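In response to the reviewer comment on reproducibility (Comment 2.3), we provide here a single inverse folding case reported in full, input and output, so that an independent group could reproduce the run without further information from us. The structure tokens appear first.
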């Protein structure tokens, strides 16, 4: 087993910062950083009710619906965003007060958090079957649909890979989320 592969089964549930939901941390950098000093953090959250999001001052957040009907986010009581289409990233400031109205039942979403003074984050989607070389700014690849073959092993839905410059093979009808970080 490679230390570059993170299996979905190894991602332990933990409460949200505000205690109103559950998330599974995929990875953070530096690995030994706490919640106040990470440069970036990636997690997969279960949203089962209309609980408000935790706030993260100084953090830029990127969220992507993975499964479920999604929800409508109301940011600071004004701006609304319907997170109802799977695999469409949405970015927002971590200090925003986010209230949620569920569009249906429970959902699961991918979250990238980047400390604003540490870099500029982005989430890209790759759906093209075949061989791909990770961009140098890619810090993590998350399998959202299908399967991926890497030099470190085969990945299934929910698994992640900390890439180097080795290519990966995206299977037919597959999709990955690529967490990008450009250092400031």
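Designed residues, in position order:
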């Amino acid at each position: 087993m490679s230390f570059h592969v993170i299996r979905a089964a190894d991602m332990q549930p933990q409460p949200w910062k505000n205690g109103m939901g559950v998330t599974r941390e995929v990875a953070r950098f530096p690995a030994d950083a706490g919640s106040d000093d990470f440069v970036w953090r990636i997690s997969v959250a279960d949203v089962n009710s209309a609980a408000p999001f935790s706030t993260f001052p100084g953090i830029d957040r990127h969220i992507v619906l993975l499964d479920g009907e999604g929800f409508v986010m109301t940011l600071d009581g004004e701006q609304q965003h319907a997170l109802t289409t799977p695999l469409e990233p949405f970015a927002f400031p971590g200090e925003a007060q986010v209230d949620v109205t569920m569009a249906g039942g429970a959902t699961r979403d991918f979250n990238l958090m980047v400390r604003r003074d540490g870099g500029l984050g982005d989430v890209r989607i790759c759906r093209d079957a075949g061989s791909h070389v990770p961009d140098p700014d890619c810090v993590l690849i998350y399998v959202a649909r299908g399967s991926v073959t890497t030099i470190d092993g085969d990945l299934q839905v929910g698994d992640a890979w900390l890439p180097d410059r080795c290519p990966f093979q995206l299977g037919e009808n597959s999709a990955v989320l690529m967490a990008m970080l450009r250092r400031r």
